[in-house]
Specification:
disordered C terminus; five-stranded parallel beta sheet; alpha/beta
Length: about 450
């Protein structure tokens, strides 16, 4: 086994090689990566970039694509839609044949529209708003990451089992696309099961920058909303925050000792957030994830991915890195199977194509381009030892088809491509054959 230092050196040299091909005029397959290098999603963006680099390095070490290396350029989105769109235009103008990234639903949906206009495939990053593969869906965009519907459907099943059909719920959520989508969807599922909503509050992105000081007369950060939520006497308090805001609200909930009075739920929790808030604050918090490194105990693909990632970076991968890795590998496999980077051919090659990478068989649905794979329900815990990454236990795994919207729930109509037959989007039984995973 190579050392982490040695593997990092190989990765660095491979990236330099790909870039040198591009900059020296030699042929290269150019892709553009949209990364939040500033703003509330910096940690997720850094992990995402690690996953992209690892996939690109793996592909380049195995001959590249169409006999050429992949070369990439990153641009800071600042998690702002106008900046992300400008970055996408810049990358396409520089010759990128595929775009990937964004860690904000609003930014991802804006880039999705731009990718459709530009005719470039976009493998969306960490976007959970239902609209990404719903009302704002586009034919050139694919989302592997879980939707709000998928997370909430999986979570609501577990929550109703644990706390009963008549439990009382309070919600504090980020006032933008993802926060609204996750909260509205949770309320829909839980109230349909008999639960009641006793408190809701929307907070601006960046609210977590405030100080959690309970002794001050003025409540900063999320403290005012947390105190009001506690007074509503809920059985369960749900947080619709992400990135640094999620870290802050979990820390402040711990400051107020809310875990002693109610269950805490963060529908989209991450290992990065858990590590930052610490075991005491994450202990008992219920969340959902598209992937978790604990899947390496169940699936060979995850075992290999975790091992390779640890060799490269010296730590466990978070789901942001897994999403980035899968997106690159799926797109690259489509390039290899079609023998081209032509977007229209790539799109058809990805639609309904079954593959196995990290867990079991999965695919992107043809009619809405939502990734269909298991959703994990996790519960936070204190790590068993210092330096451990074991912050969650997998307490449930919900089948992707069961967790996802049906066509009647999501009656989206994607744009047609030239040459599509009239019945192209009609539902058909999936092919029983399972293609080999991308190499």
């Amino acid at each position: 086994m190579k050392s982490a230092k040695g593997t990092k050196a190989v990765l660095f040299l491979a990236v330099l090689l790909a870039l040198s091909f591009s900059q020296s005029g030699f042929a290269a397959v150019k892709i553009g990566l949209l990364i939040p290098e500033t703003g509330p999603f910096v940690q997720e963006g850094a992990a995402q970039l690690d996953g992209y680099k690892m996939a690109i390095d793996e592909i380049n070490r195995n001959g590249g694509l169409l006999g050429e290396p992949i070369a990439f350029t990153t641009v800071n989105t600042e998690s702002k839609p106008p900046t992300a769109v400008a970055a996408a235009k810049q990358l396409v103008g520089q010759g990128a044949v595929m775009l990937a990234g964004c860690n904000s639903s609003a930014s991802a949906m804006a880039v999705s529209a731009e990718a459709q206009s530009s005719g470039v495939v976009y493998m969306a990053g960490l976007t959970i708003a239902n609209e990404t593969t719903g009302a704002q869906a586009h034919r050139h965009t694919f989302r592997w990451y879980g939707s709000a519907h998928q997370y909430c459907k999986a979570l609501s099943t577990v929550l109703i089992q644990r706390f009963g059909k008549n439990a009382r719920y309070a919600y504090i959520y980020a006032d933008y696309a993802a926060g609204k989508s996750i909260t509205e969807t949770m309320i829909k599922f839980l109230e349909a099961g008999g639960a009641s909503t006793v408190y809701t509050a929307a907070t601006a992105l960046g609210t977590g920058a405030g100080t959690a000081a309970t002794g001050m007369k003025q409540r900063l950060g999320f403290l005012l909303e947390l105190e009001k939520a506690a007074k509503s006497n809920p059985d369960v308090l749900v947080f619709g925050q992400f990135g640094s805001d999620l870290v802050a609200i979990l820390k402040q909930a711990k400051t107020l000792r809310l875990q002693e009075k109610m269950a805490l739920v963060a529908p989209v929790g991450t290992l990065a957030a858990a590590m930052e808030v610490g075991g005491d604050a994450i202990d008992g918090v219920i969340t959902a994830a598209t992937w978790y490194h604990g899947a390496s105990e169940r699936y060979e693909g995850s075992r290999k991915f975790v091992q390779d990632y640890e060799n490269n970076y010296g730590r466990k991968p978070v789901n942001a890195a897994a999403a980035a890795y899968v997106n690159i590998m799926v797109w690259a496999d489509a390039v290899k199977r079609t023998g081209t980077t032509d977007s229209e051919k790539i799109i058809r090659a990805i639609e309904d194509h079954r593959f196995t990478l990290l867990t079991k068989e999965e695919y992107f649905r043809k009619w809405d381009h939502q990734g269909i794979r298991s959703i994990y329900v996790l519960q936070g815990k204190r790590p068993s030892s210092t330096g451990s990454y074991d912050y969650f236990s997998i307490v449930g795994e919900v089948d992707g088809e069961q967790a996802s919207r049906t066509r009647s729930e999501n009656p989206v109509v994607l744009e047609a491509l030239p040459g599509d037959p009239p019945d192209y989007f009609q539902e058909k039984q999936p092919d029983a054959a399972m293609p080999q995973p991308p190499q």
